[in-house]
Amino acid sequence: KNEVEQSPQNLTAQEGEFITINCSYSVGISALHWLQQHPGGGIVSLFMLSSGKKKHGRLIATINIQEKHSSLHITASHPRDSAVYICAKGTGNQFYFGTGTSLTVIP
Amino acid sequence: EPEVTQTPSHQVTQMGQEVILRCVPISNHLYFYWYRQILGQKVEFLVSFYNNEISEKSEIFDDQFSVERPDGSNFTLKIRSTKLEDSAMYFCASSEALGQETQYFGPGTRLLVL
Questions:
Q1: For the segment B18-43, what is each residue's pLDDT rounded down to a tens digit?
Q2: DSSP output for B55-83
Q3: Is B46 exposed, middle or buried (0-12, 13-18, 19+ CB in 10 A)?
Q4: Which residues on A lie below 8 Å from B31 (Cβ)?
Q5: How far is residue B67's CA from residue B53's CA, in Å, rounded to a whole number?
Q6: Do B9 and B89 form a contact (C-beta atoms < 8 A)?
Q7: What pLDDT, in 10s, does the model give residues A35-64?
Q8: What distances in angstroms separate CA B46 from CA A13, A14, B13, B51, B52, one per listed residue?
Q9: DSSP class of A67
Q10: Could you tell me the pLDDT band of residue A87, with boundaries at 50, 70 and 90?
Q11: Cβ neighbours of A70 (radius 10 Å)
């Protein structure tokens, strides 16, 4: 079954904290995507990973193919990082989404 | 910066009516996608489209749904005989050559079926 599980579901952090969001999936993938959904509903693609690690600014995404696990890290978190972060796995041209992690960063 | 656009931003329709949601993908992209997100639920994949035909579709994408690229720029999702449960945000996305490349999402169309 193509399950994608995220944890935690909700996360509140103080500005400046280091944040980790986890994603596990049940079967193999072609690629793993991390997306950000803003409070207004818009979706932005953050990373697409098939192995290793990627970094963009304060965001880091890692994936362990053997363990079927990926993490999204945010360093020096800021209130503007408040959003829902969604993990999605791609298998061929099908995509399966996690339920998202709602992050609130408090000043 | 190029972006995916969608029209309309909001659509209200009566149950049983047909709706067409429109998307203009980024011009050099070759893969196109439709997703939906029912309020409070996760994003769900509907269909991917490449080379003027459906590449993959989910179980949700039944005979009620169809997609089309009527010209060189538009990509449409048609929902026939809408049901109350079709009420959702519908997102279009596009990506470059390969299906697993980074996808660029449109702002979404919020569909309300009454």
A1: 999 999 999 989 899 999 999 999 99
A2: EEE-TT--TTEEEE--SSS-EEEEE-S--
A3: buried
A4: 93
A5: 9
A6: no
A7: 999 988 889 999 999 889 999 999 999 999
A8: 34, 37, 20, 17, 16
A9: T
A10: very high
A11: 25
Residue segments in chain B with a per-residue pLDDT below the cut of 50: none
CB atoms inside a 10 Å sphere around CB A25: 22
**Burial call A26-48: b when 16+ CB within 10 Å, e when fewer:** eeebbbbbbbbbeeeeebebbbb
CB neighbours (10 Å) of residue B77? 25
Q: Select the residue of B45, B91, B100 nearest A43 (Cβ to Cβ).
A: B91
Residue at token pair 């362990």: A64
Query: What does the DSSP 8-state code read for residue B59?
Result: T
In terms of CA atoms, which chain A residue is nearest residue B47?
A94
Q: Which two tokens stand for residue A4?
A: 């994608």
Which residues in chain A are closer than 8 Å to B42, comparing Cβ atoms?
Answer: 86, 97-100
- The residue behind tokens 């909700």 is A10
Q: Which residues pair with A24 in a beta bridge?
A: A5, A69
